[in-house]
Design a protein that fits this description.
alpha/beta; Leucine-rich repeat, LRR (right-handed beta-alpha superhelix); 17% helix; elongated; binds 2-acetamido-2-deoxy-beta-D-glucopyranose; LRR_TM_domain-containing; LRR_5
């Protein structure tokens, strides 16, 4: 009897011991993951179809869920991970992020979703990120950024969307991002809706480059306030429409650099815009703006340098405009610092080398068609590379100055010895 009891006792102890050990291992780490510590979990096995919340230690601070195959991030997908600070979902097969996918993560600071087929940043996908300061969305297939995608995520300081085929930035796309230092948008944007940047209250640096717009439409920048540097550069801006810059307020520097501009229907920057420095540099303007269509008032500094303008009879209209008429100091050496784009005979010539007085003012319809024809011929030469670039993404991506996603910690995680 004694012996039997002893045997039963040992069996019981052994069962409890193994069972318990088994239990600890299971509870500590989800299947398909490697728990390096209670604070660091890697699930890079490649086999996960769902977010492995079951058995995830609630103490996890750094979570890498890379190279898996979950196509959808559901709403509240990470609910309960209250200690989570850094989350990487790079290299997954993510095609959909549902609204409020990352809600309820009060300590999350750093979110990375790169190298996925994600095509839309849907409304509210990144909403309610109370404490996130950095989102890297580089190297995805994002075509569209919808309204209110980042609603209520006011702490975001860096939003990097580099290297996406983004075509459309919808109205209110960035609303709520009230303290962004750097907003890095992809190349090749074709359509920025009016009010796209509405309620971006405090932006360090907003660079819009390699765009392929048909127009800078009315109210594109409305509601964008307190910007250190807003730069439109290396883009085909199409037509600058009336009211394009209306509602843009408090800008240290507004750069319009190295663009092709088909026409300026109106450029009206006044004291209400509070623009300190306007720099127009290296642009090719294909048509002379109509008399009175340019108003530049209340600027601290105006730089108009290295641009190419039509030098036909309309040159007098240009020289009378505030770009050149001496309202600002830069107007005085306008002629020595800018160049002709047309007619063909003077293409590339410094304006100062022209005999301005010998160029007659335009008379009603005088040989207008001839002038335009020669203008068109010269453009084919000087704007060759713009034409070549239009619509060609390979060209765009081969151009310099492209913002790279910073090599963040999510990359380092991958290199960590396992
Ligand atoms: C990725 O997701 C798409 C759409 O959900 C699916 O068709 C495809 O088979 C998935 N690929 C892998 C490797 O699971
Ligand atoms: C949010 O981040 C700040 C700065 O790192 C930190 O001080 C604060 O405690 C965080 N909030 C929460 C709820 O963790
Ligand atoms: C830009 O996109 C909006 C919304 O889809 C559309 O209504 C508008 O016509 C587009 N504009 C251009 C110039 O393509
Ligand atoms: C330019 O903008 C100011 C301020 O918004 C406005 O009062 C003025 O009428 C505009 N001028 C033109 C020519 O549109
Ligand atoms: C330049 O042109 C603007 C607008 O036409 C005008 O208001 C301004 O007085 C002109 N400045 C000079 C110095 O002629």
């Amino acid at each position: 009897m004694n012996v039997v009891w002893r045997i039963l006792f040992y069996i019981g102890v052994l069962w409890r011991f193994y069972g318990c050990r088994h239990f600890i291992v299971e509870a500590a780490c989800p299947k398909g993951c490697l728990c390096l510590s209670p604070a660091q979990v890697m699930c890079n096995s490649g086999e996960l179809r769902e977010i492995p919340l079951k058995n995830m230690p609630l103490t996890v601070e750094t979570l890498a869920l890379q190279k898996n195959i979950f196509p959808v991030i559901k709403s509240d997908a990470f609910l309960g991970l209250k200690a989570l600070r850094k989350l990487s979902l790079d290299r997954n097969n993510i095609t959909t992020i549902k609204p409020f996918a990352f809600r309820g993560l009060p300590r999350l600071r750093d979110l990375s979703i790169q190298h996925t087929p994600l095509a839309v940043v849907a409304s509210f996908a990144f909403a309610g990120l109370q404490n996130v300061s950095q989102i890297s969305l580089c190297h995805n297939k994002i075509l569209r950024i919808e309204a209110y995608a980042f609603a209520g995520s006011a702490g975001i300081r860096l939003l990097n969307l580099a290297d996406n085929p983004t075509v459309l930035v919808e109205t209110n796309a960035f609303s709520s991002l009230s303290s962004v230092d750097r907003l890095i948008l992809p190349s090749g944007i074709r359509n920025i809706s009016q009010d796209a940047f509405f309620a971006l209250d405090m932006v360090g640096y907003l660079k819009l480059s390699f765009m392929d717009l048909s127009e800078v439409s009315a109210f594109t920048f409305r509601g964008l306030t307190n910007v250190k540097l807003l730069s439109l550069q290396e883009s085909d801006l199409g037509v600058i429409s009336a009211n394009a810059f209306d509602g843009l307020d408090h800008v240290d520097t507004l750069n319009i650099l190295n663009n092709k501009i088909d026409a300026i229907h109106e450029l009206n920057i006044t004291a209400v815009n509070h623009v300190r420095t306007l720099r127009l540099q290296g642009n090719h303007l294909l048509e002379t703006p109509e008399p009175g269509s340019i108003t530049l008032e209340g600027l601290g500094v105006l730089h108009v340098v290295g641009n190419y303008f039509p030098c036909g009879c309309h040159i007098h209209t240009l020289l009378d405009s505030p770009l050149a008429n001496g309202s600002y100091a830069s107007g005085e050496d306008f002629l020595s610092k800018n160049y002709c784009i047309s007619p063909l005979e003077v293409n590339g010539l410094q304006m100062a080398q022209l005999d301005i007085f010998a160029i007659g003012r335009c008379h009603e319809q005088v040989t207008r068609e001839n002038l335009e024809a020669s203008g068109a011929a010269s453009l084919a030469v000087s704007l060759d590379h713009f034409r070549w670039c239009r619509g060609s993404s390979s060209c765009i991506s081969s151009l310099p100055y492209k913002e790279q996603c910073p090599v963040g910690d999510s990359e380092n995680l991958e290199e960590m010895p396992v």
